[in-house]
Amino acid sequence: MKHTSRRIFLRNGLLLGAGALLGAPALRGAYAADAAPLTLYNGQHAKTTQKLVAAFTQATGIRVDIRKGSSTQLANQIIEEGSRSPADVFYAEESPPVAALAEKNLLAPLPKDTLDQVIPGYTAADGTWTGVTARCRVTVYNREMVQASELPSSVLDMATAAWKDRVGFVPTSGAFQEQLIAIKLLKGRDAALNWLKGLKQYGRIYNGNMAAMRAVERGEIATALVNNYYWYIVANEVGADQMKSGLHYAGPQDPGGLITVSAAGILKTSRNPDAARKLLAFMVSRAGQEAIADTVAEYPLRPGVASPFDLKPFDALNPPPVSPADLGDAADALALRREAGLA
User: Contact at 8 Å (CB) between 323 and 176?
Assistant: First the structure.
């Protein structure tokens, strides 16, 4: 996936910004105060979605009923509910659960003017879902336990005897499984399986990304494979200048630097598709992107919207050539984990 240069990125932001609350004029207009609320199945972080929904309701008058769960759990629930599902919109922490619904023909096509608000390469090939914000896979490391110069340029080299008992990972994490599929796409299935087996043999399993992040910060383990924003959560608590850990970005186009996205789509069975389209348009509008960016250290996917966090510039990440659409529903991740004895 080719990434937009900073010059084009900023230029597009200026071009899109003028019209935009803009994702669409349809965001404005009358809405009956007694109309039934939208039902949003939410797999994204609760605080992030609550801030987004509050801004949306204030801007449009449309009420939203949020039902929280894990992204995978909610996707499975929608599949089981079928045409009886009360869900209007599905907002997932990662793209594969949304892609799984698209593959089962459960999502409605999104308006082109909504999809066009997002940086190219971060929407579904068939237009049934869109990325909302992006994050980067990183290695967080304890500066008192390992020097930055010791860290390998490839995440593949961390599943080796040289890093025995020095790497934390979360095999159940959706982003970890996306990274696994990226390795499979780039290096082949055997390489992905061997990487998993190496991590199982030499690494240390954690039951959550925040647990792994905090373990590195307190010196329990030297490094962990997480998303970039977990470091910023802890930094916000204790102060960035007090952090004992830092962020290491993998070498150019290495799967260790995979960019993944939160994603959203509209159910074909939505009882209120007009309001659902307004919500999706708001998610990628300037106001929606700013509401999300204020709560979490992820990258806005609308050109011209900046994060208030001191993130590494998006166009400086140099990720592997694997897009969220390439990852699909990441179905083989579970099979690989089982084969490696990690399921």
Answer: no
Query: How far is residue 144's CA from residue 131's CA, in Å, rounded to a whole number?
Result: 37
DSSP string spanning 75-106?
HHHHHHHGGG---SEEEESSHHHHHHHHHTT-
List, for the chain, all residue ranges whose pLDDT scores fall below the cut of 50.
Answer: 1-26
Inter-residue contact 168 to 225 (CB < 8 Å)? yes
pLDDT of amino acid 35 = 78
**CATH classification of the domain holding 307:** 3.40.190.10
The answer on 119 and 16 residing in a single domain is yes
In terms of residue numbers, what domain contains 147? 135-258+332-339
Coil/strand/helix, residue 267: strand
Tell me if residue 193 falls in helix, strand or coil.
helix
Residue 105 lies in a domain: yes
| Rounded Cα distance, 283 and 277, in Å | 10
Nearest to 116 by CA among 12, 25, 26: 12
- CB half-sphere exposure, 178, CA atoms < 13 A: 32
Tokens 């929407």 identify what position?
123
Coil, strand, or helix at residue 257? helix
Residue 170 in contact with residue 209, Cβ under 8 Å? yes
Angle at 91 between CA 272 and CA 28, to 5 degrees: 45
Please state the domain count of the chain: 2
Among the listed residues 143, 112, 140, the one whose alpha carbon sits nearest the alpha carbon of residue 127: 112
| 104 and 145 belong to one structural domain | no
Quick check: helix, strand or coil at residue 216? helix
Which pLDDT does position 124 carry in this prediction?
Answer: 98
The rounded distance, in Å, linking the Cα atoms of 284 and 305 is: 10
